[in-house]
Automatic annotation (TrEMBL), chain A:
It comes from the Eukaryota. It comes from Chlamydomonas schloesseri. Belongs to the peptidase C13 family. Pathway: Glycolipid biosynthesis; glycosylphosphatidylinositol-anchor biosynthesis. This is GPI-anchor transamidase. GO terms for biological process: attachment of GPI anchor to protein; GPI anchor biosynthetic process; proteolysis. The chain crosses the membrane at residues 390-409. Keywords: GPI-anchor biosynthesis, Membrane, Signal, Transmembrane, Transmembrane helix. One of its GO terms (molecular function) is GPI-anchor transamidase activity. Residues 1-31 form the signal peptide.
UniProtKB/TrEMBL annotation, chain B:
Residues 123-162, 338-361, 603-627, 766-811 are annotated as: Disordered. Residues 604-617 have a biased composition (Low complexity). This is GPI transamidase component PIG-S. Pathway: Glycolipid biosynthesis; glycosylphosphatidylinositol-anchor biosynthesis. It is found in: Endoplasmic reticulum membrane.
Length: 412, 811
């Protein structure tokens, strides 16, 4: 039986990652808006996020799902918790009825490495994998009802890894066979992210045909763009399994996975080490990278900065003697009862008080309505807009009808 | 005449109609097409935003000033007192000492130091403003009357000192916003009462004397009292009160301006009353801090804490999620756990046989699942935190009890400690991500109350295994209506339920979440100790992770054989205390408090003669020794108002900066990305944010804490909501050719008959001699204009009928 391995999001937050002791940086909030400070990223990131996307449905695209699951396997093994991974998988290959090896996904026919693993949290699945959702995850613009677990809650101390795998072409990438992500959209989304301070550094990896064209419009600072193929080149598949009757993985991701399988979180391998393993002989396409912050080199970028994370755990309690119950001073017990009685009610922002202390409720409703006033007016505005549009269309239709009737009538 | 067959319009009229319809078509279709393809953009106040960005970029733009009033009580008699002209130098000295203890220059701190000298029968005041504050005032006055040429008066170097002596003028002083004369020295009895009061009693007495004017955010009163009983020997003693008071008791033989007393004022006021936590450091300060951190790990830890971003969402929301995790509330063990335990015990069994330090066998009998009375816990401990911090952030609370949440790391038996220990290196992997800690699965206050009308405290979520309400509040039973205690009970209920409304934009901005986990280890792993980096047990058997929250181990042994057990009161208290300590740390408030607490250790460690080296003080000559500092804690919340004020200062500054930055980002983005839409609702949010930011800046200048923080929060949450409005990015980039291509199939068929008619007209016009057409047309129009009736039109038709061979051909 195919077990449903799409574990619902097991919400545990395992911890954000290492903060260097000297993360003492200029106030990040100030740094977001000003162009001058954007040159160099801060000395150390404080958390990691990964957005891993496969854009292809259907059994024949098995390899694209395996590509994404391989990277998922890598980042999870290196310590990024599921709460910090946004996984977008349009189809369930592991539990596909055509899969003779249920609940498993393999990167090659030796079937040694099951990249599906034991515990997978898919955030966007099936038809939820859309360009709009992908761009919303990047830019952080969500409808209110979207739960936290489906949002990327990164800030300007986050390192973000984005991995895209699927079918693509010159300056576009197909999503679910029904729509396309255009290079300009991607560039705009990244520009918005950097403008809002949603990442400190970004590593964007694209595994698709003509991948370099998808990222060529990106100008957002501090992003590293890696593409597996150039314009006019294919991103080829690899390792077909006779029992599945399919190609298992794409060549670029196969090599990437092979590299990371020999690495652990303590590794100091650099991005350049990864690049050295890419060969044209195996991939039959030229990979390329581009760093929008030109002062950085692949030799400077540590891979675990993007693919791994370790929580910064502190055990210090740092309590003073006053923090004991009754707060340490000797006559506190004597004062406890009087204090509880005489302490002024804690000063509250009166506008936050829906119900004033005298407990009158009618006024509170008024406040509530006032506070909710914006949404009401917004609704009214949108209605008037729609009304305007529809009357325009109606008028046009009427004009067309009348004119046809008149001309027809006149000429008969 | 044309009754039975359809009337044939005159040619000129037909032409007119055709052209009219063509024109109408073009006029109607083009706007519709434009409306459909244009990017809807509400107008943005670009100039305002740019001006605000510049204004906020100026130094100390969002920094709330603190006013420290040093209330010198003169004992009279033989004890020395200040003379009138000694007050201003004293105020200046105090101000500079506070700055020195802060480690900042006068330009970097908005600080007002006032001295009130209370002598029997006379009261005089003097005040000193820091350079940064005056620079800000100058800027704002320049801005206000820019063009009028009014010159702002330049202040003296290091601050402006103003003097005002007032004799029996307490009323005038009280009418101003500052603390006036309390006439504490008016009678000997009153004076003795004040001077002999203990710290805590003095705190209450001051609150009573000052009434409302003393206990306001940003206004601190530091009493300078002569120590008539020489409690501290030759050293001045200090205390920070539960409210916004402090007291320094200087040796009665000297003056309050003695270097030691002034230094103690600085030591008290700098961390407690004048601190600006999380300040952006400039380059010099940053490098100095790095150097200090390299030598001292404590300083490094403090800096790291201060540099951490606050776990508060842009809409000023913070959700505290309390979870009680029962690792294994069952007597039965999965086989692999048993094997691991057997291995662990087997390896240590040999050497520990004699000592008897074995894992307690009784543990296997007491396997009960723990439950807690969270409602009472919240009412007693968490509720006051919510109230204390309500101005700085809206705290919401949820709780849950989880079962079967094994840690990913097992403890190993340590015979020395007679406990299972988890080494520090394993702690990052202690919490399993499969624990359902995440409250967002079951709904958060923001999503529960997304329409802004339902207060957090009323939003109750029932879902799955998280059965508790959001922000559940326990109330005493209400007496029946018209019963004697009814009114009192209602007032109590109203005070207990703060009814925190989410801000207007809260729906689209997720709250920040902090987890507070009480972890009951499996019976076979009890007691469980977490070890610190030095191999010692963690002080409170807990750890915390910045931005995530904290976890504490509950080593309570439940009664044997029971299925369920309650967490004991004292353990809950311990948890509350630890949660508060860690909350303070996570909110960045610990540094100031730690400094006050550590002062005593330093003082105790060094002999009185030796210098008590304090961070920030860098005198060549040893600073004068000072006595102990007591720190009273607010009993109800554990968070003193001055701590909440410090958070308010930090949050307001950060909010102002972030709001301006977000608005600026949005404006830039709209310029950069031409396809980005700005719906009218978002435009309204931006305008509101701009207005709120202006209000916030004005309130900051007036050092009105409440208004400033409220306006700053509004500005930020509205700006962020505008930026993160999903409607902004609904429209993706579309190539220009698509804009035509998509609408062509709609417009073209409708245009075909019209174009056909046009073509026909043109063709006919070409075929016919132009003059004839013109004559025909003008004559027809002229006849119609001359006021002829329908009948004449019929005549006209008959007249024109022979002249329409083209029409006959065409049909």
């Amino acid at each position: 039986m195919a077990r449903s391995r799409y574990a619902s999001r097991l919400g545990g937050h395992l911890l954000f990652c290492l903060v260097g002791l000297l993360a003492a940086q200029p106030q990040p909030l100030l740094a977001t808006g000003t162009h001058e400070i954007k040159g160099a990223p801060s000395s150390r990131h404080s958390n990691n996020w990964a957005v891993l996307v496969s854009t292809s449905r259907f059994w024949l695209n098995y390899r694209h799902i395996v590509n994404t699951m391989s990277i998922y396997h890598v980042v999870k093994r290196l310590g990024i918790p599921d709460s910090n991974i946004i996984l977008m998988i349009p189809d369930d290959m592991a539990c596909n009825p055509r899969n003779p090896l249920p609940a498993q996904l393999f990167n090659n026919e030796s079937r040694k490495l099951d990249v599906y693993g034991q515990n997978v949290e898919v955030d966007y699945r099936g038809y939820e994998v859309t360009v709009a959702n992908f761009l919303q995850v990047l830019t952080g613009r969500h409808a209110p009802e979207v739960p936290l677990s489906r949002r990327m809650l990164s800030d300007n101390s986050s390192n973000v890894l984005v991995y895209l795998s699927g079918h693509g072409g010159d300056e576009f990438m197909k999503f679910n066979d029904v729509e396309e992500l255009l290079a300009q959209d991607l560039a705009d989304a990244l520009a918005q992210m950097s403008e809002k301070g949603r990442y400190r550094e970004m590593l964007l990896i694209v595994e698709t045909c003509q991948a370099a064209t998808l990222v060529q419009r990106v100008t957002a600072p501090n992003s590293i763009l890696v593409a597996c193929s150039q314009k006019g080149q294919q991103s080829l598949s690899f390792k077909s399994d006779p029992e599945l009757g399919l190609s298992l993985i794409d060549r670029f991701t196969y090599q990437t996975l092979a590299f990371f399988e020999n690495m652990d979180i303590s590794s100091t391998a650099k991005l350049s080490d990864l690049f050295k393993t890419y060969s044209y002989d195996l991939m039959e396409s030229h990979f390329s990278y581009r760093m929008t912050n030109t002062s950085r080199k692949p030799e400077d970028v540590q891979l675990t900065d993007f693919f791994g994370a370790v929580a910064d755990v502190r055990t210090g309690s740092q309590r003073g003697p006053q923090d004991h119950m009754l707060h340490g001073d000797q006559d506190a017990r004597r004062f406890l009862m009087t204090a509880l009685r005489t302490d002024s009610p804690d000063s509250l922002d009166s506008s936050l008080l829906l119900r004033p202390p005298d407990g009158q409720l009618p006024g509170s409703l008024l406040v509530a309505r006032e506070m909710a006033g914006n949404s009401m007016s917004g609704v009214g505005r949108s209605w008037s807009l729609a009304l305007g549009r529809w009357t325009g269309l109606g008028a046009l239709a009427a004009i067309v009808c009348i004119s046809i009737a008149l001309i027809g009538g006149g000429s008969s | 005449m044309a009754a039975e067959e359809r009337p044939v319009l005159p040619q000129s009229r037909r032409r007119l109609y055709a052209i009219g319809f063509l024109a109408a078509y073009v006029l109607a279709v083009l706007p519709i097409w434009y409306e459909a393809v244009r990017v809807p953009r509400a107008p943005l106040p670009h100039d305002d935003i740019q001006a605000l960005e510049e204004e906020v970029a100026a130094p100390l733009a969002g920094a709330l000033a603190s006013t420290v009033t040093v209330y010198v009580l003169c004992a009279g008699g033989t004890y020395p007192c200040f003379k009138y002209n000694e007050l201003s130098p004293y105020a200046e000295a105090v101000g500079e000492e506070i700055l020195r203890q802060l480690g900042k220059t006068s330009e970097q701190v908005p600080l007002v130091v006032r001295v009130v000298h209370d002598e029997k029968g006379a009261c005089s005041t003097s005040s000193w403003d820091s350079e940064g504050l005056m620079a800000r005032q100058r800027r704002s006055s320049q801005r206000r009357d820019s063009g009028s040429g009014k010159k702002a008066k330049a202040g003296a170097k290091g601050g402006r000192v103003s003097n005002s002596g007032s004799y029996y003028d307490a009323a005038a002083a009280a009418s101003s916003s500052y603390v006036g004369c309390l006439s504490l020295a008016s009678s000997q009895q009153r004076l003795t009462g004040v001077l002999s009061a203990a710290d805590r009693a003095l705190d209450d007495l001051a609150a009573k004397e000052l009434g409302g004017q003393g206990d306001r955010p940003g206004h601190y009163v530091l009493f300078m009292l002569p120590d008539l009983w020489r409690l501290g020997g030759d050293l001045p003693l200090g205390a920070v009160g539960r409210r916004r008071f402090g007291v320094v008791r200087y040796p009665a033989g000297g003056l309050p301006s003695a270097p030691a007393a002034v230094r103690l004022v600085g030591l008290l006021a700098a961390p407690a009353f004048a601190s600006h936590l999380g300040d952006p450091l400039d380059e010099a300060a940053l490098s100095a801090a790095r150097a200090a951190a390299a030598s001292d790990p404590a300083v490094a830890a403090q800096l790291a804490d201060e540099a951490l971003p606050l776990p508060v969402s842009p809409a000023a929301q913070l959700h505290l999620s309390f979870s009680l995790c029962n690792a294994h509330p069952s007597p039965h063990y999965p086989s692999h756990t048993l094997r691991a335990a057997a291995q662990a015990s087997g390896s240590t069994a040999k050497q520990d046989q004699d000592s008897g330090a074995r894992p307690p066998a009784a543990a296997s009998g007491s396997f009960a699942a723990f439950a807690w009375d969270f409602a009472a816990f919240e009412a007693q401990f968490v509720g006051p935190w919510k109230n204390a911090l309500s101005a700085a952030a809206r705290l919401t609370v949820s709780s849950q009890v989880l079962y079967f949440t094994p840690a990913r790391v097992n403890g190993s038996w340590d015979p020395q400690r007679a406990a299972f220990t988890v080494p520090h290196a394993s702690l990052p992997f202690f919490v399993d991500s499969s624990w359902r800690l995440d409250p967002s699965r079951t709904g958060l206050p923001a999503s529960a109350a997304a329409d802004g009308a339902v207060p957090y405290d009323l939003a109750t979520i029932h879902s799955g295994d998280r059965s508790s309400a959001i922000g559940e509040v326990v109330l005493p039973p209400m007496p029946p209506a018209h019963a004697p205690g009814r009114a009192v009970a209602e007032a109590a209920a109203a005070a207990a339920l703060p009814r925190l409304l989410p801000p207007r934009a809260a729906g689209s901005l997720p709250p920040a979440v902090l987890h507070f986990v009480l972890f009951a280890p499996p019976p076979a792993q009890r007691p469980l100790l977490l070890l610190g980096p030095d191999g010692e047990a963690a002080p409170a058997n807990s750890f915390h992770v910045p931005g995530w929250g904290m976890l504490q181990v509950l080593n309570q042994v439940p009664p044997s054989g029971a299925m369920m057990a309650n967490v004991r009161e004292d353990n809950m208290e311990e948890f509350a205390r630890e949660a508060l300590t860690q909350l303070r740390l996570l909110l960045g408030l610990a540094a100031a408090r730690r400094r006050l607490i550590q002062h005593n250790e330093l003082h105790a460690a060094s002999s009185p003669a030796a210098s008590t080296t304090s961070k920030g003080s860098s005198n060549e000559d040893a600073p004068p020794p000072v006595g102990r500092i007591e720190l009273l804690t607010d009993l109800r919340s554990g968070l003193a108002p001055w701590e909440a004020d410090a958070l308010l200062r930090r949050r307001t500054g950060a909010d102002v900066a972030a709001a301006a930055a977000t608005l600026g980002s949005l404006a830039r983005l709209l310029r950069q990305v031409p396809t980005l839409a700005l719906p009218p609702a978002a435009g309204a949010l931006v305008r509101d944010a701009v207005a709120a930011l202006r209000r916030a800046l004005a309130a900051v200048e007036a050092s009105n804490y409440m208004d400033a923080s409220k306006a700053a929060q509004q500005a930020r949450s509205w700006a962020e909501a505008a930026f993160s409005d999903p409607a902004l990015s609904t429209r993706q980039n579309v190539p220009d050719t698509h804009l035509v291509g998509v609408y062509l199939p709609f417009c073209l068929p409708a245009a075909v008959p019209l174009l056909q008619a046009l073509l026909h007209e043109i063709r006919r016009r070409r075929r016919k001699p132009t003059a004839g057409v013109d004559a025909q047309g003008t004559s027809g129009v002229g006849q119609t204009l001359s006021g002829e009736m329908e009948a004449s039109e019929g005549e006209q038709l008959i007249h024109t009928e022979p002249n329409t061979p083209v029409k006959a051909n065409d049909s």
